[in-house]
Amino acid sequence: MQAQDTPNIIFIFADDMGIGDISNNYGKAHTPHLDRLVNEGMQFTDAHTSSSVCTPSRYSLLTGRYNWRTRLANHVFGNPTEAPLIKKEEVTVASFLKEAGYHTACIGKWHLGIGWQTIADYKNKEGQEGKGWNIDYSKPAITPTSNGFDYFFGITASLDMPPYVYIENEYATNIPIVTKAFPRKGAATADFEAIDCLRDFAKKSVAYIDERAKNDKPFFLYLPLTSPHTPIVPSKKWQGKSSIGKYGDFIMETDWVVGEVLKTLDKHDLNENTLVIFSTDNGCSPAAKITDLIEKGHYPNGNLRGHKADIYEGGHRVPFIVRWPSVVKAGTKTDRLTCTTDFISTCSEILGTPLDDASGVDGISFLPTLKNPSINDREAIVHHSINGSFAIRKGGWKLAICPGSGGWSYPRAGKTPSGLPPVQLFNLSKDLEEKHNLQAEHPEKVKELINLLQSYVDAGRSTPGMPQQNDREINIYAEDIAK
User: pTM of this prediction?
Assistant: First the structure.
């Protein structure tokens, strides 16, 4: 068994799942394995992703750097041939841990750009509909193995984005020959079915842990799941298992994957010094039919305003559970203000190995909080919505620099009614549901928070250290809300 300062690390990252989707948080779909993590670990009640959509939030998790500092000003990657968002020389949590002696693996959804090689001037042939046909699948791609992972098995992007093909390390496992739709049409291998993905990722994860258990070398497993994002396709075993429909069934199957990981750790007696983290890339999506779920008594985003894509809390306040029995007291909670950018800095402090000055520039280690849940040492967090709108949170105060949601809920980005104030100030300590805009009553707080956000932009970082460069010019007031 490894020493406490070199624990095995597993980060499970669900897709489009809200804080109310766990049965421990009053969800109506039974999630016994997530409940187990809560009961045996620490629940972070004020944890956030850096963005309310997935490509940017995944970037920030792995690099400890806010997504809006990159070339991706808004939205997510939708083109299967998009160049990798993580720069070749950029430090990730995987490359950092690999350098420290860890074996590293990514199993699941990447969605940060796969560097596919394409066939010049390719035109789809008869029967070849949608995207993904112009890729030369016989050649290696730029995959997570270029970002510090020793092993990769997974898919390019979301489960509803072609091509529908598994990739192992740098190569497609098979050549697409048919068009399939999940629901977007695109190139697919004959044997790829969306309904199989969770089981395939669980099987690969179990096999990976089985193999690493034979070795004293610590390991890092990053397990970004494809669920409960669309297509909402629970496998036959889980269909009809919940009382709230297919979405609930899919949550239960997602929980089952967590259970397979925990069961494998149990089998190899690896629990005591394995750090397991579960979180999600943003809040629940309206594609889950949130109104219908609420009518059945299930509140996927709890009592928060908004949902996936929004600057409101429902967009980016997410489940965040940490189990590490040798360090974390079971059944504890913390209200520490936390961002998923903090992950790489936490790994750095656990190992006692500092990051270089250009890495993890927006991360603050939560290791002290794991040892003492009352420690809340984070000053502020910057939030970002799908259309590129900013918000900044400091203490109980949150300032959104946009007149509406910055996303898909009312007032919708680009369609906000005239006459709304250009900014929204909320006191979350008294108004977690963000009902009362206090910008007119507290102009001094508006100014304070704008100045703090601007300082983070100008410094290229939000933590102490040498100033760094952003990858683009950033205007916190003038993101194009029409995009």
Answer: 0.98
